[in-house]
Amino acid sequence: MIGGTGYTGVELLRLLATHSAASLGVITSRSEAGTPVSDLYPSLRGSVDLNFTVPDATALAQCDVVFSATPNGIAMTHARDLLDQGVKLIDLAADFRIKDIPTWEHWYGMTHVCPDLVAGAVYGLPELNRSVIAQAKLVANPGCYPTATTLGLLPLFEGARGDDVALVDASTLVVDAKSGVTGAGRSAKVANLFSEVADSFKAYGAAGHRHHPEIWQNISSVTQQAVGLTFIPHLLPMLRGIHATIYADLLDSAQPLEAIHERFTNYYSNEPFVDILPLGQHPETRSVKSSNVCRIAIHKAVGSNKLVVLSVIDNLTKGAAGQAVQNMNIMFGLDETEGLSSPAIMP
Ligand SMILES: NC(=O)C1=CN([C@@H]2O[C@H](COP(=O)(O)OP(=O)(O)OC[C@H]3O[C@@H](n4cnc5c(N)ncnc54)[C@H](OP(=O)(O)O)[C@@H]3O)[C@@H](O)[C@H]2O)C=CC1
Ligand SMILES: CC(=O)N[C@@H](CCC(=O)OP(=O)(O)O)C(=O)O
C-alpha cells in the first residue's frame, strides 16, 4: 500500500488486517518511514506488525495488488512500472477516474503523465461495472461524493437492469451533499481543525467542485439525455459520513412512489452493499458508520414534482477503502463481501 498513514490508508489496514485472503506486504510513508504502524495507530496493535517504509518500486513490485491511498497525481507516477511488472493497481485518488484528459487536467490543475493508461482503467463502482472490474488491471476507485450520488441516481435511469426508461429529467439534477471532516484527509490544514468546524456548518466549492465532472460522467454513461447537474458539497462537524440529498424532476408526475420504490428495490436486489429503506424512512450517516453499505431512501416532496433521493455512506469505507477492498475481491475472484460484512457501529 502506498500512503499508509492517511485516513483512507488506515481504514484499508483495518479492513485488510482481518481479510482471509490478503496479507500485507508493504505499507509506505515518507514521513513515518521506520515507525511501527501500530505506534501511529494503536488500534492496529496485534493486527498489523509491519513498519512504514519509504515507497520503493522493487518492494511494491513483489505484491499482487497495490492500493495507492495518496493525494491526486501520485498513482499516475507509479502506474506504468507496476502494470508492466504484472502488479494490479487500485488508485483511491482521482488520477484515472475521468476519461476526458483536458477535463481532468482542468479540475485537478496538473498535466496527466500517462493519459494512455486512462482509457484502459476501469471505474471501480461495482454496482455499475462489476464484470469489467473482474478483468481489470487498473481500477480507478470512485470519489466519496460520486459514490453516494451515483448509487442514488442509477435506478432512475437504468431501470431494472435492461429497462432503460428514465423516470426523471436528467437536466434537472440537484445534489446537496454533506461530508464529515475525514473526507479532507489527515493532512488537511487549519480549515479542518476542531475549533474551525465544531458547532458550525458551511457549504464549500459552490461555484464548482472536482467531483462534478465525475458524477456527470457516471450519469451520462447510463442515459441518452443531456445531463444538467448542480452539485454543492458541505462540511459537517462529524468525523465520518456522507449524506447526499438528491433532487430530480419526475417525467411523469402521476407516477406512484410505490412503483419507483419497487424499481429501486429490484435494481439493487442482488447488491450486497446497497440497502433500500422502506417508504417513509430517512437514512442516517451513523447507520453506515465504518460499514461498506450505501443506504438509500426515496421521497416525493410535497408541493412539487420533485423526487428526492437520500443516500448515505461512510466516506472512508464505501466512499474509499471499503470499496477498494470490494474491487480487490472482484479482481481476484474472491467472495465480494470478504472482509466487509461487519454492520455499522451504532450509536
Ligand atoms: N478521505 C476520504 O474520505 C477520501 C479520500 N479519497 C482520496 O484518497 C486519497 C487518500 O486520501 P486520504 O487518506 O484522505 O489522504 P491523507 O492526506 O490522509 O493521506 C495521504 C497519504 O499519502 C501519503 N503521501 C502523500 N504524498 C505522497 C507522495 N508524494 N508519495 C507517496 N505518498 C504520499 C502520505 O504519507 P507520507 O506523506 O508520509 O508519505 C499519507 O499516507 C486522496 O487522493 C483522496 O482524495 C477518496 C475518497 C474518500
Ligand atoms: C470534506 C472534504 O474536504 N472532502 C473532500 C473530498 C475528497 C475526496 O475524496 O475527493 P477525491 O478522492 O476526488 O480527491 C473535498 O471536497 O475535497
Order of strands, widest sheet: 6-7-5-8-11-10-9
Quaternary structure: single chain
Structural class: alpha/beta
- How many helices? The count is 12
CATH superfamily of the largest domain: Dihydrodipicolinate Reductase, domain 2
Catalytic activity: N-acetyl-L-glutamate 5-semialdehyde + phosphate + NADP(+) = N-acetyl-L-glutamyl 5-phosphate + NADPH + H(+)
InterPro entries: AGPR (IPR050085), AGPR_AS (IPR023013), AGPR_dimerisation_dom (IPR058924), AGPR_type-1 (IPR000706), NAD(P)-bd_dom_sf (IPR036291), Semialdehyde_DH_NAD-bd (IPR000534)
GO cellular component, one term: cytoplasm
Organism: Arenicella chitinivorans
Indicate the topology.
Elements (H helix, E strand, L loop, with lengths): L6 H10 L20 H4 L16 H4 L4 E4 L6 H10 L3 E4 L9 H8 L6 H6 L1 E2 L2 H10 L2 E3 L3 H15 L14 E7 L14 H4 L4 E2 L7 H10 L8 E7 L6 E8 L7 H11 L6 E3 L17 E7 L5 E8 L3 H15 L16
The site of N-acetyl-L-glutamyl 5-phosphate has 12 residues, from strand 7.
